[in-house]
TrEMBL record:
GO terms for molecular function: rRNA (uridine-C5-)-methyltransferase activity. The lineage of its organism: Bacteria, Bacillati, Actinomycetota, Actinomycetes, Micrococcales. The keyword Cytoplasm does not apply. Residues 27-86 form the TRAM domain. This is Class I SAM-dependent RNA methyltransferase. The active site is at residue 399. InterPro entries: NA-bd_OB-fold, SAM-dependent_MTases_sf, TRAM_dom, U5_MeTrfase_fam. S-adenosyl-L-methionine binds at residues 263, 295, 319, 372. Keywords: Methyltransferase, S-adenosyl-L-methionine, Transferase. Coiled coil: none annotated. GO terms for biological process: rRNA base methylation. It comes from Agromyces seonyuensis.
Amino acid sequence: MPERRTRRPDRRSKPAAARPARRAAEPRTDGPLLELEVGDVAHGGVFVARHEGRVVFVADAAPGERVVARVQDASKDRFWRADAVEVLEASPDRVPHIWAESGIDRDPIDRAGGAEFGHLRLGYQRELKGRVLADALSRFGGVEVAPAVEPVLVYEGAEDVGTGWRTRVRLHVDADGNVGPYAARSHRVVPVASLPLAVPAIERIAPLGQPFRGAEHVDLIAPSTGDAQIVVADARSSRSAPPTVDEIVAGRRFTVDRDGFWQVHRGAAETLYRAVQDAVDDALFDPRAANLDLYGGVGLLAGALLDRFGETVRLTTVEADARATEHAGTNLAGAVGVRAETARVDRFLQRLVEHPTAAERARLADATIVLDPPRSGAGREVVDLLAASGARQLVYVACDPVALGRDVGLLRAHGYELEEVRAFDLFPSTHHVEAVARLTRR
Ligand SMILES: C[S@@+](CC[C@H](N)C(=O)[O-])C[C@H]1O[C@@H](n2cnc3c(N)ncnc32)[C@H](O)[C@@H]1O
């Protein structure tokens, strides 16, 4: 029997600029049909075409294709949005969609969302993601780099197929009690018979086809320890402490609220743990400096630093969510130099850089700062404060290429240089890509 709980808001929130505008209602079935030559990939999982001089961002297409697309949003002068509905000339990189219920043979209103690159060869998806990242770093960051997007396996020895990786899945419930994902770029619930992006444990327990009248959504969770779980969220309040799950990464145990933030791909937490360990230049790392893990969650990346540089490292992990900080404190207990603080990063840094003593200023200037902000990135205010700290080394974990490009540009204007950037396919068959960058003070 699934449990019913009230859910806190999703903390990896996406800013409007970082995703295609949500079509709040249902996709249109009556928009005009256009024949389009499809150009390059754009940010947000769409492709650039032109119609009578106007840019049309078209979904479910591929560069070089000729498609018929239905216009979904013609409200702006500068660009329209459309969904491909028929392929007239197919890209050699087009494959049958990994999720039949997302395929182009369905009307866009009935296409399950969340697998917007599932119609493209996996290697080609990564090429496109690499292009988007390189373009964002060039345009907004002023740096020319072309990182290859590295595959991430679900477990060692697993096949690299782009499916079976999600350990957290949210299904939505409509007024009639139907459960399923939203259609792409809309709030229409699409009942489905399969969840190919999910790990098998979630596929097995998913209550597909069952009515959930009165529920807001259904969360499916498959932690790395224990059984997969179904949690039904409704509007009622709950006073009890939220249940937790345990995740193991490189032998280290992390307790996290069941509805708290954790990396979604089965291999993601370990990939980022190792990538951050590798990214830190140990010649620049001072264990006694005022090292920071910003947007620290339950302490995953702080744990990576401790496991690389030893349990006596001085390190503060900063996180806005009090429950996550509480867990970080417990997960990192035993490391004498570690402090877990509940604070907004901007306020924490403001306090830190405001009136430091000479000794504090020196400890900050020697610091390595890891930051892993939500999709909106750190932003100008936090970047200004990071620069004011004078920290010698920044390791920036980013899930939005444009936000990373913007922040790299801002940091470069403050005298930081991008030393290296790696990219990881933590979200196969979607347009999302994760990057880990190291910047150092000039
Ligand atoms: C992408 S997650 C990273 C968490 C952690 N580094 C990990 O890998 O598990 C971003 C975290 O930042 C927190 N967060 C979002 N905005 C914040 C802010 N302004 N100040 C502090 N933490 C924030 C969220 O609660 C979330 O835990």
